[in-house]
Amino acid sequence: MAKIKKVENIDPSTGKQYHHDQYLYFCKGCGYEHAFALRSDGGNHGFNMDLNNPTVTPSLLQNFTPGRRCHSFIKNGRIQYLNDCWHSLKGQTIDLPDIDNL
């Protein structure tokens, strides 16, 4: 099963194509999906393009406010939550959940 999925590349409000591809993964700590954009398409991240065993570089920083910050690395299908995360999984490394089952 896939741990990351590609987002539809159309802006629903305008019907126009986005300038970069986005991908989603489910964060168990926050309880919802997070997105990242690829560096080659104008985004900030590299991705090995393996949806089942993903590696994304550099780290992923979501929700920039300290009270809701989620900061992690995704390597070989696992997510390492860094110590500046707000949630109970900070400092832990777990398998990314299958996103297709959510």
Automatic annotation (TrEMBL):
User: Which InterPro entries does this chain map to?
Assistant: DUF6527
Source species, domain of life: Bacteria
Which Pfam families does this UniProt record tie to the protein?
A: BubE
Question: How is this protein named in the record?
Answer: DUF6527 family protein
Q: Which organism is it from?
A: Draconibacterium aestuarii
